[in-house]
Amino acid sequence: MSSTLFRTKKVEQSILDTEEPEHALKKSLSALDLTVFGVGVIIGTGIFVLTGTVAKNNAGPATALAFVAAGVACALAALCYAEFASTVPVAGSAYTFSYASLGELPAWIIGWDLVLEFALGTAVVAVGWSGYIQSLMDNAGWELPAALGSREGSDVFGFDILAAALVLVLTGILVLGMKLSARITSLVVAIKVTVVLVVIIAGAFLIKGENYDPFIPKEQPVEAGASLDSPLIQLMFGWAPSNFGVMGIFTAASVVFFAFIGFDVVATAAEETRNPQRDMPRGILGSLFICTALYVAVSIVVTGMQHYSQLSVDAPLADAFKATGHPWYAGFISFGAAVGLTTVCMILLLGQTRVFFAMSRDGLLPRFFSRVHPRFRTPHRPTILLGVVIAVLAGFTPLTELAALVNIGTLFAFIVVAIGVLVLRRTRPDLHRAFRTPWVPVIPILSVCASLWLMINLPAETWVRFGIWMAAGFLVYFLYGRTHSRLAKGEETRPEQTL
Question: Which of 159, 172, 325, 449 is the most exposed place for a label (fewest CB within 10 A)?
Answer without folding.
Answer: 325
